[in-house]
């Protein structure tokens, strides 16, 4: 076992390694299967405008807050909340800090199952089954039944855990430096290929043609807010942990700006690949797993050189999913290291065992309600608690100094009202409206 004093020595080597890792944590399934559907559902450009506004708002308040909170406390949520509440002579910090850790582990349990699905479709693409032999709907039905994807699920989880075992700079940072650029390059290539498909034009209209009447519908703003909030990976956990591995000379404001920009580009790029392809072959766009595992493979079967398209597509989706899962698992791993003084490999083994055991039993009919429950009730609560703790419990002076660290330009007067009132207000709304609507992101 490593001593507690040595745990935090491993940090991100560079600002760009940190930024790319944060982008990796943000770019995930929500960008790929939900964003294109939401954009079309709520008026194309009429949805994009409030979505981008919320990305800017949340990126320059909540994201920088979580990054700076972790760095200032030199700890993930469990230790960061504990230290913050001790400043007010309160012992409730460990309790509140446990909530985002549980949320992160809960989502990771379900996410690892989906990673297994992606691996199965990637393998079938490589050997040509999806294109030439198997019906994607039949394959997905078999995978998504109870205990239907155990070998693939465990394989995906083990691959992610192996990457994490190399540590922060040689593991998380190195993996993201490969997978995230590869994701963008692959999806850019696919977007160009899709543009040449006959009949793809209606897909671009679906995504970008504005129906301005939708902006008068409050639901457009609610779902745009939810999409931005969840897409930026706000949960009071992963971004806090990554912030704790960040060196003091890095500007978190500019880091948050790059994360927001590239996360939005990933969502738009996903839309440019998926929706025009779906329209080109006369199929209906839908949200959720069905889009990735039934609709898109059915489209791929009709495209010339479809096998190559399939391999590139599912490889890129795997990169997006794997980097997100790394971030989700890092929170409970770091908590065991800091709380119990365990070695990194022992912590990874324990978290991996819990994730695998629970994941096997949520495969099938339990997966969707499990993911919905965690994403509606726990994840936004963790983000809200992190915002309240950073901007209210720690106080304005602490928050300003933490964000200012490593930054040459002085923060403007906007910082306090935008973080204490606007962001925390948005977090409250996301939590309440998520429960009311049954999920908004």
Please explain how this structure is put together:
The protein has 441 residues and is mainly α. It has a domain of 305 residues. It contains 19 helices and no strands. The longest helix is centred in the N-terminal third of the chain and has 35 residues.
Coarse shape: globular
Major sheet attributes: none
Determine the N-to-C terminus distance.
39 Å
Average pLDDT reading: 91
Q: Give the total of beta strands.
A: 0
- What percentage of amino acids are in beta strands? under 5%
Structural class: mainly alpha
The value of Rg in angstroms is 21 Å
Number of helices: 19
Order of helices and strands: HHHHHHHHHHHHHHHHHHH
Kindly state the percentage of residues in helix.
Answer: over 70%
Q: Segments where pLDDT lies below 50 for 5+ residues?
A: 1-8
């Amino acid at each position: 076992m490593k001593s507690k004093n040595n745990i935090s020595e491993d940090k991100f080597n560079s600002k760009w390694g940190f930024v790319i890792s944060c982008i990796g944590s943000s770019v995930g399934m929500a960008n790929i299967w939900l964003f294109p559907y939401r954009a079309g559902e709520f008026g194309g450009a009429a949805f994009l405008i409030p979505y981008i506004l919320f990305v800017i708002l949340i990126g320059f308040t909540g994201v920088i807050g979580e990054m700076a909170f972790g760095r200032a406390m030199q700890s993930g949520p469990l230790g960061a909340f504990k230290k913050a509440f001790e400043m007010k002579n309160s012992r409730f910090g460990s309790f509140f800090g446990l909530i985002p850790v549980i949320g992160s582990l809960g989502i990771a349990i379900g996410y690892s199952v989906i990673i297994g699905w992606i691996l199965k479709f990637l393998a079938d693409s490589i050997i040509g089954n999806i294109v030439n032999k198997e019906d994607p709907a039949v394959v997905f039905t078999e995978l998504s039944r109870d205990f239907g994807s155990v070998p693939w699920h465990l394989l995906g989880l083990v691959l992610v855990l192996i990457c994490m075992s190399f540590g922060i700079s040689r593991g998380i940072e190195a993996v993201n430096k490969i997978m995230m650029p590869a994701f963008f390059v692959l999806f850019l290539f696919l977007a160009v290929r899709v543009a040449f498909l006959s009949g793809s034009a209606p897909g671009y209209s679906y995504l970008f043609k504005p129906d301005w009447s939708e902006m008068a519908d409050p639901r457009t703003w609610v779902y745009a807010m939810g999409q931005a909030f969840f897409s930026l990976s706000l949960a009071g956990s992963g971004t806090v942990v990554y912030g704790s591995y960040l060196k003091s000379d890095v500007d978190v404001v500019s880091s948050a700006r790059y994360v927001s920009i590239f996360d939005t580009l990933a969502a738009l790029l996903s839309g440019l690949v998926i929706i025009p392809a779906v329209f080109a072959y006369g199929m209906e766009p839908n949200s959720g797993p069905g889009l990735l595992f039934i609709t898109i493979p059915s489209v791929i079967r009709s495209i010339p050189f479809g096998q190559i398209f399939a391999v590139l597509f599912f490889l890129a989706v795997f990169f997006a999913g794997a980097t997100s899962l790394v971030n989700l698992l890092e929170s409970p791993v770091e908590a065991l290291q800091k709380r119990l003084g365990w070695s990194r490999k022992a912590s990874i083994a324990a978290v991996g065992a819990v994730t695998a055991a629970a994941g096997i039993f949520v495969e099938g009919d339990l997966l969707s309600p499990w993911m919905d429950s965690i994403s509606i009730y726990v994840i936004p609560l963790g983000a809200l608690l992190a915002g309240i703790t950073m901007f209210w419990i720690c106080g304005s002076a602490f928050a300003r100094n933490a964000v200012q660290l490593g930054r040459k330009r002085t923060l403007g007067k906007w910082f306090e009202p935008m973080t204490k009132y606007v962001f925390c207000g948005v977090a409250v709304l996301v939590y309440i409206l998520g429960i009311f609507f049954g999920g908004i992101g």
